[in-house]
Backbone:
C-alpha cells in the first residue's frame, strides 16, 4: 500500500487518462469480464456527471474548521481493538446509523448520525499547521509558487474568493464570511484570502467572539452623522454618501474608516446581513441550545448568515491551533473541546432541519490533518508530550451533512492503527471540488490572477460517495 509522502506534492499515481494505477490494474482484471479501458473511462465520466448534478443543490456551504487538527482516533475513527497507546482512553458508542460508531464524547452527533456521512480516509502529505491550513481552506494538494507558511498574495484563493470570482454579486451580500477569528501566529495563516486573485475578492472576516456580552461588528456601525436606514441597494447607499459628502470627507481625513469599512458599507446596504449579526434578536432559548460559548454562538451566527443568503461561511472552532493536543490529548478533548463542539453542531443540525435549510446547506466538519497513531509519539522527542498526539497528515476524518449528502454512512477506512488509508484516499483538492460543485460551480473553471495568468480553480474530483448510499 502506498503511503502519502511528505513534501509539497501528494502523488496520486494518475496517468494521462486521468485514472489511477489501481484503476489501470482493475482494467487488467476486468478485461477478462469484458470491461475495456474505454468502458471504464465512460463509466467514470458518467459517475462524475451524476455526482456533480446531485451535488449542485446547495445555496450555502458552512465549513466548520477545527483549527489545530482534532484527533480522528478520539472522534470519528476509534480503534477499540488496538493497543492502549493507540486507542487511547475513549470508547466507541453506537449511533443512530446502524453499524456506525463514533466517540462516546460525541453523544449529540451519535444521535444525529443518520444525517452524517463520515469520511475516514482523508489524507495529504504536509503535517504543518500553516501549510495544511492553506491546503484545506483552498482545496489544493501542492503549494503554489511563491507561497510560504505566511499569508501572501502568492496564496491560492479560499473557497469564498473562488466563488466570488466566478459568480460575483452586486446585491450587497458577501459571497463569503469567516468568523470568529483570523488565524494568525504573529503572521496570518495562508489560505484565508483571495491570494493571487487580489484583494477585490477577499472574504469578509469577523474577528470578535459572538459569545461576548456586547458582541457587535464595529465595521458594521457607521460613524456618527451617517445613516443607512431606507437604503435598499448599493446605488442608493452611494447616493446617500454623496448627499453627506462633507461628513464622509471629514471622517476620512481623520482616519475614521478602517481597511474593511468600504466593504462594510456594502454589507449595510443589505439590511438582512446587518441584522444577522444582531444575536440579541435571537430567542434566548435557542442561544442556550447552541451553548453560551464561542463554538455554539459562532455556529448560531453562521445559521443566521445562511438565512441572510451568504453562500460560504467558515466558522473556526476557536483561535489558532485550538485543537492542537500535544499535551493531555484525551483530557483536552473530553473536558474542553468535544462537549461544546458536540452541543453546537447538534443544535445547528436540528435548527437547520426545522427551518427547512439543511437540504440546501452543505455542512463540512474537518481540521487540517489528524493526530499521530500513538499517544506520546512526538516528532521533537519532548517528554512533556507523552500524553498528547503530534501532527499527522497520513490519514484523518471529515464529516458532512446536508445538500444531498446521504447520511448514516461511512466512506473510506484507515488501517488498523489509524495511520494511513486502507481504501481510496481523499485529498484537499477533492474537498475543494466537492464544495464548489455543491454550489453549482464547475471545479475546472478558469480564473485569472492579478497578472491575467489563467489558472484552473480546482484539480480535484467530487467525492461522489457522499451522494450515494455506498459505504466503502
Residues:
Amino acid at each position: 500500500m502506498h503511503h502519502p509522502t511528505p513534501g509539497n506534492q501528494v502523488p496520486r499515481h494518475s496517468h494521462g487518462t486521468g485514472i489511477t494505477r489501481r484503476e489501470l490494474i482493475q482494467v487488467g482484471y476486468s478485461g477478462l469480464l469484458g470491461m475495456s479501458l474505454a468502458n471504464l473511462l465512460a463509466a467514470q465520466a458518467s459517475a462524475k456527471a451524476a455526482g456533480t448534478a446531485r451535488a449542485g443543490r446547495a445555496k450555502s456551504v458552512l465549513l466548520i474548521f477545527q483549527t489545530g487538527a482534532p484527533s480522528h482516533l478520539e472522534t470519528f475513527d476509534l480503534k477499540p481493538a488496538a493497543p492502549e497507546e493507540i486507542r487511547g482512553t475513549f470508547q466507541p458508542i453506537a449511533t443512530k446509523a446502524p453499524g456506525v460508531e463514533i466517540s462516546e464524547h460525541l453523544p449529540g452527533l451519535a444521535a444525529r448520525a443518520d444525517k452524517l456521512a463520515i469520511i475516514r480516509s482523508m489524507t495529504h502529505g504536509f503535517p504543518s499547521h500553516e501549510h495544511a491550513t492553506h491546503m484545506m481552506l483552498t482545496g489544493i494538494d501542492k503549494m503554489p509558487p511563491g507561497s510560504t507558511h505566511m499569508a501572501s498574495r502568492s496564496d491560492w484563493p479560499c473557497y469564498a474568493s473562488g466563488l466570488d470570482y466566478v459568480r460575483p454579486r452586486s446585491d450587497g451580500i458577501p459571497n463569503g464570511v469567516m468568523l470568529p477569528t483570523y488565524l494568525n501566529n504573529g503572521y496570518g495563516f495562508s489560505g484565508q484570502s483571495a491570494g493571487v486573485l487580489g484583494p477585490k475578492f477577499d472574504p469578509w472576516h469577523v474577528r470578535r467572539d459572538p459569545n461576548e456580552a456586547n458582541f457587535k461588528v464595529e465595521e458594521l456601525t457607521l460613524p456618527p452623522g451617517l445613516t443607512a436606514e431606507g437604503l435598499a441597494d448599493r446605488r442608493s447607499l452611494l447616493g446617500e454618501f454623496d448627499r453627506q459628502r462633507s461628513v464622509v470627507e471629514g471622517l476620512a481625513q481623520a482616519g475614521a474608516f478602517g481597511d474593511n469599512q468600504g466593504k462594510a458599507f456594502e454589507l449595510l446596504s443589505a439590511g438582512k446581513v446587518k441584522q444577522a449579526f444582531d444575536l440579541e434578536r435571537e430567542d434566548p432559548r435557542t442561544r442556550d441550545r447552541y451553548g453560551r460559548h464561542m463554538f455554539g454562538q459562532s455556529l448560531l451566527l453562521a445559521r443566521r448568515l445562511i438565512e441572510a443568503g451568504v453562500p460560504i461561511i467558515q466558522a473556526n472552532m476557536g483561535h489558532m491551533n485550538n485543537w492542537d493536543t500535544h499535551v493531555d490529548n484525551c483530557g483536552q478533548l473530553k473536558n474542553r473541546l468535544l462537549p461544546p463542539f458536540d452541543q453546537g453542531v447538534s443544535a445547528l443540525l436540528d435548527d437547520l432541519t426545522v427551518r427547512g435549510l439543511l437540504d440546501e446547506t452543505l455542512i463540512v466538519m474537518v481540521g487540517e490533518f489528524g493526530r499521530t497513531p500513538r499517544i506520546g509519539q512526538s516528532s521533537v522527542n519532548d517528554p512533556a508530550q507523552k500524553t498528547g498526539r503530534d501532527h499527522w497528515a497520513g490519514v484523518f476524518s471529515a464529516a458532512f451533512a446536508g445538500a444531498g449528502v446521504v447520511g448514516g454512512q461511512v466512506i473510506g477506512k484507515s488501517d488498523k492503527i489509524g495511520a494511513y488509508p486502507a481504501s481510496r484516499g481523499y485529498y484537499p483538492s477533492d474537498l475543494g471540488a466537492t464544495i464548489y460543485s455543491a454550489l453549482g460551480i464547475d471545479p475546472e473553471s478558469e480564473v485569472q490572477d492579478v497578472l491575467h495568468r489563467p489558472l484552473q480553480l480546482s484539480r480535484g474530483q467530487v467525492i461522489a460517495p457522499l451522494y450515494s448510499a455506498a459505504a466503502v
In short: The mean pLDDT is 85. The CA atoms of residues 291 and 414 lie 33 Å apart.
